[in-house]
Design goal:
- Keywords: Signal.
- This is DUF2059 domain-containing protein.
- By secondary structure, this protein is mostly helical.
- It folds into two domains: 123 residues, no CATH class; 46 residues, no CATH class.
- Helix content is 91%, strand content 0%.
- The protein is built from five helices and no strands.
- The radius of gyration is 30 Å and the shape is elongated.
């Protein structure tokens, strides 16, 4: 078989074989460019849909440890009479940090979206799947579904809260009682009854 193939190939001029190879390569590159364009478009759509929420979440994860640490330090080191004034001043500084961090993180969301998502989309999704996803995300049905998000999420959360409220409140009471026993048995005083 190999000899027959070599004999057949030797009858074709080299230029024809080269042209055929280039055409096949160009077709694959064009298909890859088309797939890449779809992956970039999908990454941009993802960034637009989720970038703000991601920036807020990442900012909160940077701010929360500072807030917790300084709140505890304030309670331990500042006399109670001065705590409100000091807390107000710390809040101003914390807001400056949070606003600055939010801007830095938001500036990176678009840049990072394409760099992180395009390779994943290229590897995990076919060109046809990318076309289908982009078509859906651009459709009026998708826009309508996305607009329902807050109402649907709130209805779902309310249903969960309503169904779990007695157990959660009972668990909180049990924790409070246990914490009170631990503190009072170790020399602390009971909190004033409300």
């Amino acid at each position: 078989m190999e000899l027959a193939l070599n004999a057949t190939l030797s009858k074709f001029p080299i230029a024809i074989l080269f042209a055929a190879a280039c055409a096949a390569s160009t077709g694959a590159m064009a298909q890859n460019d088309s797939k890449r364009a779809l992956a970039v478009k999908l990454a941009q759509m993802q960034q637009k849909a989720d970038g703000s929420a991601m920036a807020e979440q990442l900012t909160a994860s940077a701010v929360q440890p500072l807030l917790a640490g300084w709140s505890q330090r304030l309670d331990e080191t500042v006399p109670p009479a001065r705590q409100k004034d000091v807390r107000d001043k710390l809040d101003v500084e914390l807001k400056k940090y949070a606003d600055s961090t939010q801007k830095v993180v938001e500036a990176q969301t678009a840049k990072a979206a394409e760099a992180a998502l395009v390779p994943i989309f290229m590897e995990k999704l076919s060109e046809e799947e990318l076309k289908q996803i982009v078509a859906y995300m651009e459709s009026p049905a998708s826009a309508k579904f996305q607009a329902l998000g807050p109402d649907a999420t709130n209805a779902w959360a309310k249903r969960i809260v309503d169904a779990t409220k007695p157990q959660v409140e009972n668990g909180a009471k049990n924790f409070e009682a246990a914490a009170n026993r631990i503190v009072t048995s170790n020399g602390g005083s009971s909190p004033a009854k409300k």
